[in-house]
């Protein structure tokens, strides 16, 4: 994987060079932090939210930090490109969430014919060239090129090669825990959780909250709320012991509207206040 070393703000573009799967290098950015537009060449299977989609040849794929996904190759050598960017990169220019390719119930995988593939590869080539340039307004150019890919995809017919695995409950449970885990640990670059309720998680997974609750009861014998509260509590303990954040900052980071709400939650779980726990 070749890294374009000149990063521009909250945008970067990479080329996926042919590689053996066992020698894969880790991605240089945390998935939770970035939106991504990928061009994937090769036979593969992608698990995206509540769907499993087969990509027989080549596809343009859109992912965001809040909808879990994973994909695996059926072949050992692949190539392609991907651009990553944050919501801030489009600040005052456009709102990413308004585009269907980044919405939970939108279409995210678009198979390409050879002519479409050539067009998309040309856009990525322009991105690689632009990000390495010294042009004063190259960020504007990169935004426009990204917009071209977004609108190009939304005019295409989305991939319909969807499959259903035998154990849907286990698959959804895995995606839920991945989505939950992406919100942690909290730090200066990621100071607050975005998802706190069963309904919010269910929306990202494209399922009803009651169904998500049944799935988790079946697979781990806990309710959605129990799992979320346990993870919030675990992060609270870490922040209290290992950081200098004050109680109000920790409460805000964990999604509590008031520090008193956090205190009540913590005391209910551990029979002591956050301040008392910090001193132990």
TrEMBL record:
Matches recorded under Pfam families: HTH_18
Origin superkingdom: Bacteria
Keywords attached to this entry: DNA-binding, Transcription, Transcription regulation
Gene Ontology MF: a single term: DNA-binding transcription factor activity
InterPro entries hit by this protein: Homeodomain-like_sf, HTH_AraC, Tscrpt_reg_AraC-type_HTH
Domain HTH araC/xylS-type, first and last residues per copy: 170-280
PANTHER family: ARAC-FAMILY TRANSCRIPTIONAL REGULATOR, TRANSCRIPTIONAL REGULATORY PROTEIN
Protein name: AraC family transcriptional regulator
Species name: Saprospira grandis (strain Lewin)
